[in-house]
């Protein structure tokens, strides 16, 4: 299943590029010309009136792209300053450098030179691309630092455009590589207006610092689709490289092999939802249980239950302890209530085969979650474990054993650190070499260890299944989603989808995407209560 597009690691990208060139059907020079033309084209699209540009060219093929851009912008009437490394790069970049030299000079790529030349309308960073393996140091680090200072105000002048990626960012993880020599030796994080990347997004464009560093991300087609599909399929068939996808609902679909988001959502929800059961009974749409906690803490579970209802579960029952029943007396009237005081009562409820999903955690209290958890896990019913259930799980004697792949864990960073302290520790280390340990690496390992689907929440949510399949969902454009209670809504939405019969990995992915879409649709000022109310409109817009 692909929502929108695949994500390629830098190693996969290199392999695809090599396969294309080895086929003899396309040369490296042609690919470089297409890459440079794509960037020059995007610049001219945004700034149609020729202006002034400073182009910084590094020692490898990223620098080669920079020389192509220089030639094409010069031909379009732009006034240019080109700075480059005094080396003999690989043959393609060397040829592009020669072609540029017939048009204009190359000044040394030094901080002093960058200070000397007058400010331009745009600076183009073609220093490092996917070939970066270690932190920039010395003169290049100083250049990058100066570039960061010059373009710190993302909307001011000069604007920063990066070729393939911001230089210094590890494209497999989205973190800046550090020399360990201190701030003055390390480049300042870049803050681009536009990044034009080639063929496919890389994890670093979407994870951690990537979205802020890249600015607007454009993926340019440079004619590698044929080789990409072949390589990705071969790797998947050989089970060498499990799929890493982007859930990118707003992103235009590149080519016909991939369904767009609404098509995928229609297929998934149609399977278990009303489209699949035209004369469906409420139980055929699934019965979800949402466990609530002690009196005074009922809001979180009610939010989750409301989201499960709006998400399309046929029936949702909220299960508070007897002492808290009274506080759940209000709307929605569609919500059933049933008291649940001990593990024996959960066991009795779960003997009903119509219970197709259970949500444990939001507002539950750690002790109560811990007392109910063994029975929930014993029944291996599709479930979402969130919030207090995750804290209880981390303290459980047999953790990380006992889960199954129809279970979704939805930790935020703190809960993830309690569940997988070693993985959280590795993520927190200062990255000194690329490829740095990424959130995708961490989540794949977490899901493999515990045998469940794990979803790490954040502006760059990562979801992984025990077989290694993973998604990145980038929601850096909806910062207003990070507000109290939105996680409870997400847990409820996923359990609603589980109850509809959707498999855990897909239910988690759909839940994350629809949750963010609802926030995007509502806009700033959103509170968690608003999210479920957006769902009917969204489903209608998606044609569900
Ligand atoms: N994807 C495609 O199909 C195409 C990509 N293109 C462009 O090519 C780059 C990748 O080019 P590559 O030459 O592999 O890598 P870079 O240009 O990013 O950099 C490699 C050179 O930089 C040196 N390097 C790496 N890290 C450092 C550092 N910290 N300090 C100094 N120098 C560094 C590296 O040297 P090594 O010693 O490590 O070998 C290389 O000399 C891609 O991003 C696209 O822009 C094609 O143009 C079109 C097809
Ligand atoms: K770059």
TrEMBL record:
It comes from Paracoccus saliphilus. Its EC number is 4.2.1.136, 5.1.99.6. Transmembrane segments: none annotated. Its cofactor is Mg(2+); K(+). (6S)-NADPHX binds at residues 61-65, 129-135, 164, 300, 363, 412, 488. Binds 1 potassium ion per subunit. It comes from the Bacteria. Catalyzes the epimerization of the S- and R-forms of NAD(P)HX, a damaged form of NAD(P)H that is a result of enzymatic or heat-dependent hydration. This is a prerequisite for the S-specific NAD(P)H-hydrate dehydratase to allow the repair of both epimers of NAD(P)HX. Residues 265-542 form the YjeF C-terminal domain. This is Bifunctional NAD(P)H-hydrate repair enzyme. Belongs to the NnrD/CARKD family. In the N-terminal section; belongs to the NnrE/AIBP family. AMP binds at residues 457-461, 487. It catalyses: (6S)-NADPHX + ADP = AMP + phosphate + NADPH + H(+); (6S)-NADHX + ADP = AMP + phosphate + NADH + H(+); (6R)-NADPHX = (6S)-NADPHX; (6R)-NADHX = (6S)-NADHX. PROSITE patterns: YJEF_C_2, YJEF_C_3, YJEF_N. Gene3D superfamilies: 3.40.1190.20, YjeF N-terminal domain. It holds the Pfam family Carb_kinase. GO terms for molecular function: ADP-dependent NAD(P)H-hydrate dehydratase activity; ATP binding; kinase activity; metal ion binding; NAD(P)HX epimerase activity. Homotetramer. Residues 13-230 form the YjeF N-terminal domain. The gene is nnrD. GO terms for biological process: metabolite repair; nicotinamide nucleotide metabolic process. The keyword NAD applies. K(+) binds at residues 62, 125, 167.
